[in-house]
Amino acid sequence: MLGRPAQPRWRRFWHTPVAEAVAAAAGDIPVHVVGGEHRPGAPAWRPTLPAERVRVSPYLVALAAVVVATLIGQGLRQALAPGSVGLAYLTAVLAVGAAFGLGPSLLACVASVASYNFFFLPPLYTFTVADPENVAALVFFLLAALIAGNLAARVRAQALAARARARTTEQLSQFSRKLAGIAGLDDLLWALAYQIAAMLEVRVVVLLPEGEERIAVRAGYPPEDALDEADLAAATWCWRHLRPAGRGADTLPGARRLFVPLRTAAGAVGVVGIDRDGPDSDPLRAPPLLDPAHRRLLDALTDQAAVAIERVHLAAEVEAAQVRAEAERLRVAMLTSLSHDLRTPLAAILGAASSLQSYRALLGEADRDALLATIREEAERLNRFVGNLLDMTRLESGAMAPRLEALDPGEAIGAALERTRRLLASHKVVLDLPADLPPARLDAVLFEQVLFNLLDNAAKYAPAGSTVTVRAVADVPAGRLVVQVLDEGPGIPQEELERVFDKFHRVRGLDRQRAGTGLGLAICRGFVEAMGGSIVAANRSDRAGAVFTLTLRLAEAA
Predict the structure, then answer these.
(1) What pLDDT score does 280 carry?
(2) Among candidates 555, 494, 490, 497, which has minimal Cα distance to 521?
(3) C-alpha to C-alpha distance for 238 and 259, rounded to whole angstroms
(4) pTM here?
(5) Contacts of 454 (CB under 8 A, 6+ apart)
(6) What is 467-502 written as a DSSP string?
(7) C-beta separation of 441 from 554 below 8 A
(8) Inter-residue contact 333 to 504 (CB < 8 Å)
């Protein structure tokens, strides 16, 4: 399908229209020629690059250089032959060509020939040449000046191109280093949009896929949130087919922007759109956005950005895979703990209850009391286990809202010791509390549960007959309350000091594995941090054993 040109008939005598030439060479291919209304005086459109602004100052400098060469020649006129004076003009042409390029050097060349003829070749002060030798010298001088000016201009152009390439390479290197240090996708997209806009002097939008069917604007410089239908269609086509689309491309050239894909070996990761003109400009009549050199620069920038975006996506996928693996590990640990720590107390309760039911008449009073005590102890153990699960669920769901108020720490410590009386029956408990302990900002329920879990942990790992110490001290200048629970057990391996607070984690490598779910210390850390404090685990320096240190805020400091 071709358009019929509107041109006078007389031009066809020496110029065959394109439509007729194509139709004559098409053979069996059908050719459709579409005519349009010709508007007299309408300018014919030609795809041209933006014209560079002509600067007048280099040409004025070229004329000034010729004037200086003339003055120098006048000064040396008595000492040198006219042929030697021409070297001053040749030097001026070389200097202008090296400094300002071909156009000013050509002007300097013509002006030098005219000045040389006018001031130094007889008859003087006329443009006529009397001696044929001088004519030949003038012609050869003109040729030498033209060649020298052209060479100087070419060297200057090559030097400018080399500096431009070096500057572009440096900018690309800096951009690459910047991308390597960016971890977030939003920061990366903004850096890409800004870099393209700064280096190519265009407006930029960056689009990324949302789902499998559409893409949307994620960044821009200057910021822009929406595209019109033509631009969105071009961007979508570019993303799906991995080829440029829009203004200046073969596909959908009516779009206001040119869209190029951000692609890697795995496929398209996004699209970059650029434009320079205002929103009311006609993209079909506007000049091309980029010349070949700038188009190669755009391709280099988009290639680097595509690799960086893919790196961010892969890092996110790796992080998600790690989260899934951690969740699976916790799920397996929880199921293992449930299968063991629920079955053990339930088996003891069922065994004691069935013995009471089947052999009540054969059992003495002491045996029945022992079985009832077993049922009660295992039921309390089961209740603690279920309570830990519920507490951990509250922590993970974010439903933990502590009610902080000024409380006497000694009362909470006493309540926790009362709850652990049975657990610590075979241990010696030592309290080291000052009489003037100031009130602290605590949640009574949470603080008591923290101390209960720490004392329960000490009862499990410290041998019978050993001492469990609860110590508290107030650091009034710092506004802190420090509470410590010390035992005389085997201590904690150095590499496990931080991991003991992980969910479902229990220290390995001891003489035997203690019963428990591995949730007690994790709940302690969650509760203490909810109250604005901290908890750390360490080994005692004076003897074997572990020490857990709580740091909380005093009520007056709060």
Answers:
(1) 55
(2) 497
(3) 7
(4) 0.49
(5) 485, 520, 524, 548
(6) EEEEEEEEETTTTEEEEEEE--SS---GGGTTGGGS
(7) yes
(8) yes
Adjacent-strand bridge partners of 274: 204, 258
Q: Tell me if residue 111 falls in helix, strand or coil.
A: helix
* Torsion sign over Cα 286, 291, 294, 298: positive
- The answer to whether residues 188 and 305 touch, using CB atoms and an 8 Å cutoff, is yes
Give the C-alpha separation, 152 to 150, whole Å.
5
Nearest Cα residue to 201 out of 100, 47, 50: 50
Query: One-letter amino acid identity for 432?
Result: D
Question: pLDDT tens across 122-149, in order?
Answer: 777 787 766 676 677 667 777 877 787 7
Q: Does the pLDDT of residue 276 top 60, yes or no?
A: yes
3-state percent helix, strand, coil for the chain, nearest multiple of 5: 55, 15, 35
User: Tokens representing 422?
Assistant: 């049975």
The 3-class secondary structure across 419-466, one letter per residue, is HCCCCCCCCEEEEECCCCCCCEEECHHHHHHHHHHHHHHHHHHCCCCC
DSSP single-letter state for residue 31: -
Residue 452 contacts residue 424 (beta carbons within 8 Å): no
Which of 381, 285, 288 is closest to 44 using CA atoms?
285
Rounded to whole angstroms, the Cα distance separating 126 from 138 reads 14
Q: At what angle do helices 520-530 and 444-461 cross, to 10 degrees?
A: 150
Angle of the 57-75 helix axis to the 102-120 helix axis, nearest 10? 30
